[in-house]
Every structure is written in C-alpha cells, then in structure tokens.
Design a protein that fits this description.
Layout lengths: L1 H36 L28 H5 L14 H20 L7 H28 L4 H25 L5 H24 L6 H14 L1 H29 L14 H13 L12
Helix pairs in contact: 1-3, 1-4, 3-4, 4-5, 5-6, 5-7, 6-7, 6-8, 7-8, 7-9, 8-9
C-alpha cells in the first residue's frame, strides 16, 4: 500500500509541478508590468511598450523569457538594450511557484481545502516579495500596498496553521503563541531603530517587512531569517564596496548609491522558508 501511495504522489507531483512552473513564469511577466508601472500614473491595462521608444509591443514580443533572447536582448523598434529584469523576474517567479507547489503538495493528501488555501496564499506572498525585491533595488523604497498585502496573507496563513495545529493538539504550546504574535514582536526593534535615528539607520518599510516575515516563518525561523539577512547584507555590501573601490577605482566618498536592505531580508526569508534553521538555537529554551 505504501508503494502504491508513493507512486501516486510522485505521479501527481510530476503532472502538476511543471504546470506550477509555467504558471509562475506567466505571472512573472505580469509582475514585470506591475514593477515598471507602479507609481508612474499608468494603470495595469493597456499594451506593453518599449521604455525607450514607446513602441507598442506585438504579440511576438510578449512571450515570457523566449522573446527576450529571440530579440537578442534588444528592442526591435529602436535597438535599445532590454533590461535583464524581464527574464530574471519571470524565471525567479516560475521557480518560486514550482518550489511552493512541491513544498505544499503533501497537504494534498491530507486536506484538499487546506492545500488549496495554503498554496494560493503562498504564491501570492512569493509574487509580492518578488515585486518588493525588484522595486526596492530600483527605488530603495518599499511601497505600502505591497508590504500590506504580504502582511495580510502571512497573517492569514499564520492563523490557519495555528488553528490547524490547535485542532490536532488541544494543548497550546508556548512556541505556537509566539508564532502567532511574532509579527508584532519583530516590528518593535525596527520601529525603535527607525524612531531613534529618524529614519537614518533603517526604514520603517523594513520594519513592516520584518512583521510579515515573522508572521510567515514564525518566531524561531523568523529570527533566523533576520540574522541571516544581516549576514548576507554585510557580505554583499562589503563585496559591493570592494568592487566599486578596486575595480571601478572610485573613492568611498564618491559612492553615493544607497544599498537597500529589503532584498537581503527576502533572500534570507526564502532560504529559511524552504530550509528551516535555528541559527541561534532558540528552540533549546522553548
């Protein structure tokens, strides 16, 4: 029976995981539109156009990933270079949707409604994180509308997980309560740093993002993600400074680009989401 169950599960995964990948790539194409048009006065309706010559794109130029390389990374109208953002966002979103399905798929055999709800919330969260990641790289700001969607979906997913665990076990453990309130707990230190420095040390948007991370990952994994984010941020920031000073021959005083923290937080969050770790061994005390 176990042998049969394993093969049914494998068949389902092989059948639907590629669909999740393809759907994610298509959604990634839409996310590119959201990133480029947000706060520009343009709506999401209307045909896409070249950012340089404003040429309306034909259907042949709108195939995710493929069109970018078929056109040799250039606009067919003005020959200007296209952003690598287009295929990278599409590929990243496709991979995230694929991994989300594989991660959530075991719930399919336990509770179909829970599987659908969890998968839907997860892919929405990943989509929003992709938008925040790229938008913050360009503009060093996290739009409230996206981070609020993240917080709402993460809170809903957090509550569903808490309620499901409570149904399966009538006793409520301390860690379950901490997971439920971890969003507020994670916001507090960011708010204090933002308030003391008047926004010079860290942005309040990072605090809101941390709130969503706490709700998504829970107390222990959330702390691990934030610690990992600071490590990743420190390493990449030092690498960037070395690159600009040694390779580009710029003086430190000439390097004016602000390095956003949100992308590091998102990278760390995704790592911990798929590979849960307790960096500080907090679980030993709970």
């Amino acid at each position: 029976m176990k042998f049969f169950y394993f093969h049914v599960q494998l068949l389902v995964m092989i059948s639907f995981a590629p669909v999740a990948l393809l759907f994610g790539i298509i959604v990634g194409s839409f996310l590119n539109v959201v990133i480029l048009r947000y706060n520009t006065g343009k709506g999401l309706n209307g045909r896409s156009e070249c950012l340089s010559c404003k040429k309306k794109l034909s259907w042949k130029e709108l195939f995710p990933i493929l069109s970018f390389f078929i056109q040799k990374k250039r606009c067919v109208g003005c020959d200007s270079k296209l952003r690598w953002q287009y295929p990278l966002v599409e590929i990243a979103t496709g991979i995230l949707f694929f991994l989300a399905y594989v991660h959530v798929e075991p719930l399919l055999y336990e509770n179909f409604s829970l599987f659908i709800t969890t998968l839907l919330l997860t892919v929405i969260i990943f989509s929003v994180l992709v938008v925040i990641f790229v938008y913050d790289l360009y503009h060093t700001i996290i739009p409230n509308v996206f981070v609020y969607i993240f917080i709402f979906c993460a809170a809903l997913l957090n509550f569903i997980q808490f309620f499901t665990a409570w149904q399966n076990n009538t006793t409520v453990e301390i860690i379950s309560v901490l997971n439920l309130v971890s969003g507020a707990l994670f916001l507090i230190p960011f708010f204090v740093l933002w308030d003391i420095s008047e926004g010079a040390w860290i942005g309040l948007g990072d605090g809101k993002l941390a709130m969503g991370i706490g709700l998504l990952l829970g107390f222990i994994n959330g702390i691990s993600a934030l610690v990992l984010a600071f490590w990743v941020g420190a390493v990449l920031s030092v690498g960037y400074l070395l690159y600009m000073t040694i390779i580009k021959k710029q003086k430190r005083s000439e390097i004016t680009r602000e390095i956003p923290f949100a992308p590091f937080m998102i990278i760390a969050t995704l790592i911990v989401y798929f590979f849960p770790i307790d960096i500080l061994n907090i679980g030993l005390f709970l």
